[in-house]
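Hey all, sorry for the wall of text incoming. These are the four entities for the joint prediction.
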Amino acid sequence: MSGNTFGTLFTVTTFGESHGPAIGCVVDGCPPGMALSEADIQPELDRRRPGTSRHVTQRQEPDTVEILSGVFEGKTTGTPITLLIRNQDQRSKDYGNILETFRPGHADYTYWHKYGIRDPRGGGRSSARLTAPAVGAAAIAKKWLFEKFGTTFKGCMSQLGEIEIPFESWEHVPNNAFFAANAGIIPKLEEYMDALRKDGDSIGARIDVVAQNVPVGLGEPLYDKLDAEIAYALMGINAVKGVEIGAGFRSVTQKGSEHGDALTPEGFVGNNAGGVLGGISTGQDITASIAIKPTSSIRTPRPSIDKSGNPIAVETFGRHDPCVGIRATPIAEAMLALVLMDHALRHRAQCGDVKVDTPQLR
Amino acid sequence: MSGNTFGTLFTVTTFGESHGPAIGCVVDGCPPGMALSEADIQPELDRRRPGTSRHVTQRQEPDTVEILSGVFEGKTTGTPITLLIRNQDQRSKDYGNILETFRPGHADYTYWHKYGIRDPRGGGRSSARLTAPAVGAAAIAKKWLFEKFGTTFKGCMSQLGEIEIPFESWEHVPNNAFFAANAGIIPKLEEYMDALRKDGDSIGARIDVVAQNVPVGLGEPLYDKLDAEIAYALMGINAVKGVEIGAGFRSVTQKGSEHGDALTPEGFVGNNAGGVLGGISTGQDITASIAIKPTSSIRTPRPSIDKSGNPIAVETFGRHDPCVGIRATPIAEAMLALVLMDHALRHRAQCGDVKVDTPQLR
Amino acid sequence: MSGNTFGTLFTVTTFGESHGPAIGCVVDGCPPGMALSEADIQPELDRRRPGTSRHVTQRQEPDTVEILSGVFEGKTTGTPITLLIRNQDQRSKDYGNILETFRPGHADYTYWHKYGIRDPRGGGRSSARLTAPAVGAAAIAKKWLFEKFGTTFKGCMSQLGEIEIPFESWEHVPNNAFFAANAGIIPKLEEYMDALRKDGDSIGARIDVVAQNVPVGLGEPLYDKLDAEIAYALMGINAVKGVEIGAGFRSVTQKGSEHGDALTPEGFVGNNAGGVLGGISTGQDITASIAIKPTSSIRTPRPSIDKSGNPIAVETFGRHDPCVGIRATPIAEAMLALVLMDHALRHRAQCGDVKVDTPQLR
Amino acid sequence: MSGNTFGTLFTVTTFGESHGPAIGCVVDGCPPGMALSEADIQPELDRRRPGTSRHVTQRQEPDTVEILSGVFEGKTTGTPITLLIRNQDQRSKDYGNILETFRPGHADYTYWHKYGIRDPRGGGRSSARLTAPAVGAAAIAKKWLFEKFGTTFKGCMSQLGEIEIPFESWEHVPNNAFFAANAGIIPKLEEYMDALRKDGDSIGARIDVVAQNVPVGLGEPLYDKLDAEIAYALMGINAVKGVEIGAGFRSVTQKGSEHGDALTPEGFVGNNAGGVLGGISTGQDITASIAIKPTSSIRTPRPSIDKSGNPIAVETFGRHDPCVGIRATPIAEAMLALVLMDHALRHRAQCGDVKVDTPQLR
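and here's what came out:
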């Protein structure tokens, strides 16, 4: 209820602060009997971890995961699975002056007013580092969904600031620091980021994610619609300011005769729906896009106030991502996977294995 | 858990179908001692109800609300408040052939596959008519928030298809059928809608909503961030395909030095944040925009399949909104109000009345 | 969260007050496709309703149930099922002086201090009349559990004040006003109650309930143990002060060699467990007993205070059950059924259809 | 939802197995700004830990707690507090043969059928060792309740098998291995336990707990009644088979004129209510009793079956408590504290600080 648990049947309760002793999560509700070890989880954490290129924060964290519970002789037992990641590279002194001032665009101000106390070390709990436990938990969800339905998840950066990144092929994504599905554009992106870093500024980005081989019928009809829950999950990622499903804001200018995806015996024609109709999955690909704002912790001085209300110019040193969007792709995939996992369990709770005579389309 | 309850501490459990005997909701968690009668709720329902102009569905529903419980001698008692709205103008025969086919872009197909059964009368539970109980419940939330904090809610249509509607003044909104904050553009909008109706087609729209005088500190830090919950609430409205908070997708091309709203002793400068930082309200206006897709029930024939999987052309008769966006403004306000109400209670549960020495900015 | 919703996956949200216009509930999470009509629910309500013998309150309420939603052409659709019961025989004037004083042993005092306001008409929401909606909801649960697993529910009064009622046969239960499983003892019970009524006093009782043909594996291991949830459900019935599962308080004096029910290829020997081990159903009968306190609303004058804190003698007129235990049997069965239904859905959410090679015992 | 989280606003999510690497919990919802360190928690864990007398299991576990998150510079920050306890004295080989057979009265059988897999090392998650994290979490709750309301918790064993333990004084409790509030009876209890151990058998017990200085108004009126939640919390403790509030099963033979606690300007007379009326705290002491069954893991051979369904005699070696009731007192106090903490937050969420003009009684 205090906002540290994600999900209703497949729940992820995370804990920890950026520069505390450890971060981690308790995953509850995982079906029993699935093979699971750290080797299933570590690769997803590695995709997200910092320090892997010059374009992201230089904090060095191996993000090594330890499974503390819930697995016996290599299989899930149906009891809570705890993932623990010890923090290794804390440099809390970097943040010394932050305690007395508020960074424009940062959670400093709101945490202070909400709680009357805040952990300033690396942003404490408001740090994007806290997405790591969810990425670990999502590795479990992805494995179950793949084994059960063949569901897979993909994502890529589709825009960096003004630079649109045309989609070429998913196979480019693991081969560059930007999760771009385009090989030729990489030098341009690197040049842009190098200049930005020199200026001490930051930039926004757009990320696209897709889930494929999703069964029809996931999602609840009124308030826990699948698209509503995806919007919740994605908007909850640090720095996200916008979420689209399927055609998204393009729907504003579409006519009904254009927007509604035709059904044919061979499948759906088009996917303006983004795989969701009436809040329930159609069996098409689930597609979503998110807008990520530029990092608020920048070296460029900005007008702000201190805790006594006096005007002050704030510059942020320490180690920060100049574009948090660069590492956001695996996080967005993870959140999408957690939503689908949760709804897969919710669906079978109420509906069991529904049989209908209509062919299921993709 | 089956998706018919909204909120965690201020909960709204809705029920009913478009052409069943009644729709309504149970509102639980309302603080005791607030004056409340049907007269506080009916005006909000009247703003949303059908049949008020030629540009919306011609179904005639007075949407008269009856309070069945939770109020004693004109005051809330802290027990559940039940709102009942009897359906008056059912014409189920209009939907006769829908049971055997699926409308492209409609929940017909997904309900059928999820449940193995569906109520085809007016879309059953998937009808936008089911937003009425939430609008009623939100009237209670709005009243409490206003009495406690002075919080107010406003909304307007900012785009109809290709037609952008420049903001002039909130005072225009109640004076036209479109909830447009612009008087001069109304003839153009009417002309557009008249042509569209003649064509038997439908169109998308964009709606903006604002909450003013919101206290600082509402929202939970990791997963029930205020913006995440707003995204959930707004994306859950029928036909919504995109949600933005503050700068939204404009953040993609912004630099950090531009996006972060400066703090000064006199207040925030700008509102790219949309009133939320780190998932917690800043005290600025909460601003959000939504994209609404065109109605899927249109007279224009569309390719689809029947329940045996055979190809068929579907035309939808009956009474439908050619632009569901036209009646969406009060609904979007309502969902925003429900989110803020819930988080106001959640905040005082954990934090009570926090006192900090920093001035609170707007 | 405000305590008016029962269950997590099969949820019952009740509303209404004893002398308001109506009481009822919204049942969410019912699996789709089950045949359901008022005729399935009314008989359970009839077993609980007042005015059926001279030993219970003389309030005349037919408790006629109306299904407002969730059923289409005689089948559940998977959407919320709303049950509405209009109150018919309010006599609020009977309770006029109660608003200024507090009955010893009654919720008057605590509601007043909790909410600062209370509905005094017939106890408002604290009335045992509010068990009716749960009994209605449980009729739905019982039907589903019976169709799915053959599960049945039985209950009887096993003690009235000092009078123990030896169990003879379930078939006696529907044939007397006390739900006694014993025919010969009825005259003694009637004589006792007649004398008590003359004295203007009330008396406690003990009720036993059993669920038969319960599948193995229902219940969660740590905090939502099946027995913990049964205890919660039964202790939550008005006037209940004690709950036992299986051997209950007899376990205190048992040795391990006596208490643990032996397993044999033919089944369990004995049922000290009451059908639950480690919080999970064994497949044996689920057995529970409850202690019901005497009604607090009695004609005998009792020392109390008024709202100014002055001493006063309170006598309660109006219509009351001199032994609330008499009508408690169908309520206890209902709450047990709601727990099992909820856990049946929870079990299949996480575990699906588990297959083990060990024989399942009863 | 899978039963490893306790509470709704002050939530405790536990994890771990008896012989896994660690056990622990995540405590979410703790109000910010309270001084907290391991020194506040360790003493409660020490009261519960094994190996402290010859009458309990000889497993040697220091149960040293580490706070992993949620505290900054000695104060709670409002973010999740994680408690980690590393297991030290695992001897899993002791349990080798258990995997193939089922102990009568043990969760072996039900876990196997529920999940199709179970961790047999020390009972895995069904071990009473898993009460330790809740005891740690409750130390936080106790501290907050004491600082806020002066609330304190006490408990004692009131019966061991046939031996009733007359209450003399709370001050005896910390001075004996049984948590008995009676000094003279200790030799008799020790003699009884020594004989029992020699016989390889186990025995039940009764425990009483009390909360003092509880504010009036805690508890929700219909389904989350304070007494219902206490029953849930206490019945959920391993081996508990019965729960009483106040007069408990004595209520069965009481008349209304005897049971209802009179109110006088000086306070309540008597406490048959056990501090709860209509599900809401009265301000009186909260009193509850529990029945604890004898341990199922005994050396005495018992008839059972193996996983192929063949009859077999089961004897359990390894280290076990011959009377789990002996260490149950701090656990029962802890669960009571968690319930009150949760309801203290729930109360202020909905009702804030209610002011009524009637004097508050004790």
